[in-house]
Amino acid sequence: MKIGILLFDDVEELDFVGPLEVFGVLGKLKGGIDTVTLSKNGRQIRGAYGLRVSPDFSLTDCPNLDLLIVPGGKGAREQVRYDEGTLAFVRARAAGTMIASVCTGALVLAQAGILDGKKATTHWSALDTLRQYSKVQVVEGVRFARDGKVITSAGISAGIDLALEIARELYGEQVAADVARHMEFRYH
User: Which residues are catalytic?
Assistant: First the structure.
């Protein structure tokens, strides 16, 4: 399974590092998991708290993916959701793969039209912004919301729950629990 995580300046670090850790541990336990990072132009990004990351790919040389994860943060809210090139990439990938968002990454999916007619959630502080997309069925008070091949999570640490849910769907309850135990994370 090939998983891609979209990165951009001012991304919330735990939004992407949490799922990266889950899929890294899952790969160690089960094999067959390859997680890559990508940014619009393939250049280094600077996260919300200063972490610098050099992505593996740009949007133009990104390999085929089985899952695309769009994290949130100030960059998602103020830049990425208005960047037509990135939105076109997300739309194209969503047509043929599972797609997930963490936190305000849901706003990127909503802007791209991917959440139209679907249940979705985001960070509690951005629920009203998500409601501005009238075709989205906003769900509150949950760690993640699944609607077909689209899965969205609440804020920041909920991305770990989202990734564990995907691990559970792929490999079963025990494997997801084993991943959480390895991470010393309370599995819900």
Answer: 103
- Which phi and psi angles does 18 have, rounded to 5°? -60, -55
β-strand 57-58 against 34-39: which pairing, if any?
parallel
Query: What is the percentage of the chain residues whose pLDDT exceeds 70?
Result: 100
- Residue 97 DSSP one-character state: S
User: Taking a C-beta distance cutoff of 8 angstroms, is the pair 97, 149 a contact?
Assistant: yes
Taking the whole predicted model, whether its pTM rises above 0.85 is answered as yes
- Name all domains of the chain by residue range, CATH numbers in brackets: 2-183 (3.40.50.880)
What is the pLDDT at residue 17?
98
Spell out the residues 6+ positions from residue 50 whose beta carbon is closer than 8 angstroms to its own. Answer: none
Q: Which tokens go with 123?
A: 């960070």
